[in-house]
Amino acid sequence: MSVKYIGDKDLFVLTSNNLMYAFEISDDGYPVNLYYGRCLKNFYDLPLGEMYFFRNGTEGRIPNDGFRREYTANGRGIYSEADIEPIFEDGIRGCELVYKEHFINENSLEVVLEDKVHKLTVSLVYVTYDDTDIIERYTTVKNNGAGSVVLNNATSGTLYMEDFNEDYYLSTMPGNWGSEYAVTRQRIKRGKYVLESRTGYCNSQVAPYFAIDRGADENSGEVWFGILEWCGNHKITVEHTGFETTAITAGINNYDFSVKLEPGMEFKTPSLKFGYTEAGFGGASRIVHNYQRKYILPKAYSESTIPVLYNAWAAFELDINEEKLLSLADYAKRIGAELFVVDDGWYGKSTTVDCDLGDWVVNKTKFPNGLKPLIQKVNDLGMKFGLWIEPEMVAKTSELYREHPDWILGYEKYPQYENWHGRYVLNLAKKEVADYIFDVIDGLLNEYNIEYLKWDSNRYMCQVGNDGTAPEESQEIWYLYFKNMYGIFERINKNHPNIIIENCASGGLRANMSLAKFCSRINRSDNQDPRDALILHHGFSKIMNPKLAGGGGHISRVPNGINGRCAPLRYRAHMGMLGSLAVGYDLRNASEDEINQIAFYVEQFKQIREIVQLGDFYTIKAPESGDYCVYQYVSKDKNRSVLFVFGINLSFRKFIPNIKPLGLDADKVYNITQLKSADETNEIELNEIKLKSMSGDGLKNIGFRVGLSGDYDSKIFLLEGEI
User: Fold this and answer.
1) Could you confirm whether domain 308-392+432-460+486-609 is CATH 3.40.190.10?
2) Which CATH number fits domain 620-721: 2.60.40.1180, 3.90.1150.10, 3.30.230.10, 3.20.20.10?
3) Per-residue pLDDT at 648
4) Which of 114, 180, 437, 649 is buried deepest, with most CB atoms within 10 A?
């Protein structure tokens, strides 16, 4: 069993192949953390009963703030970050939680704590996943009393690092639109590091992710890591205390937050998924990828590849109609697209930029015959049909707004904050709004053969409430909004289990494990500048399986709209192959040579797609660290591998070191092939260049030589084991 209770020690031990997590119940009934790290052979080596020791040997005079409490309540001398902050009707703000009982069910543990005074219970729930070295942790707070309880804070839990260690480094991913997942690393010094979002988008300020190391690199060294499964406001606090303890507390952000629990009600926190590895940051990533594939991703596509996408936005933007799209579908077929997506502009009555956002009915002026003729044409060409929708937003030009002005977030007494294209946020915390959105989407999927849904969201949440709403009700919106949103996704997946949903929120502002449960594709970023995208992919891969990495058009026009760069088509295509390839190109105005080259790369990607999307991912050379970048994918049976090599900042005809692949069978001999590029041959075909064969051991320790010519050179190598 991966969950053990040793009764004579009041000890709980959770294990997997390489991970151990342990805590005990103290003599006075408090759960006290003992250990989080490498799996030990003998749990009796744990520091049982020793965690009360206070420095200078002053035992018995230990301040409450010095304990490594598994779940910390505010009050009674606790000054560190609190896990729970209740307010009771008798005016008491705080509680004291002690052990009541516990339950073990194979790989899960529930430890029930109870307040000494009030009838409030807190269940600490742990779930182990032996085959992925991941532990899931969440908390359920229940009001068993006769009066109401207001929670101003209730986190998912607190983790602790080894005490008296000042050599820890913290890696985080601050983000913004177009620069999501930019990895930063800094030494943890005395004080508090707060990683949070307050916009309603989890990646808008910093991703809900942490990694702590003591000198690790990409593929070696100890790394402790965690991801909060929540796509709304979050808060992760990493604190190095005055007692030389490093504590990590994670959960829903307590900014502008409260939940009122009436008698009998309970509140469940999001899950914190945490783990440990000795294989560096890349090893942590691969643990996350395998866990997602086995336990998170929608089953219809968790073990299958994602179709190559063509998005019509690049050709027409909002100026679309049936005739234009019918002709564009032929071009999409020519390049080998398997999925044709109609983006913004298909709904409502208007032809302006606002497009009656919120009125999700087919625009009769643009599509007099509805969408069926277009969908039929797309299907006849052998492609799936996809549709864009932004169901959480509404424009004031819409019928929906005129009928339900009370459905939007905002205060009438203050001017509305105006943002891009006049969008306003629907109050999804209201059940009637959530039901309306589900009915709209379910109706579209029932009426039309839509096999792909691009769910977009393009406005931060602000003025979260309405005039006259009680403050505690407004503060619940931050939680209820996303609880109801998850409910919509669940109902869609239940009614339409084979649909592919793309999670897009101004690009990658909601790339989170909670939505990976429902979405088989995630927009990595609106930023398709390939140089930037190589960096974004490195961060994205720390929290998401690389196969999910989508976007409207990896292969798109130059100059790029973000930085004005003009990368070659080959470079853009190779970058797009790192995840689920998409084309966003005005093919009507493309030259024959461009169309042929795009078709070449699409076909080439299909030849290696299974390795890329179903294999293990390695960063051989990170893009942030120098002149070039190398990403590698290895099939699960270790028989095939693909390496992508990109120039980034190569000057003075610089030579790069030998490329040393990882994750291969040391004893197997691999044939190495450089895949041809479309611009290297007059005949657009999948020509190849054979290199010297090498063993997996030789490749890892000696590697092979690759020559790059300048910043925008890129190459793909296919390694195949000899039979």
Assistant:
1) no
2) 2.60.40.1180
3) 93
4) 180
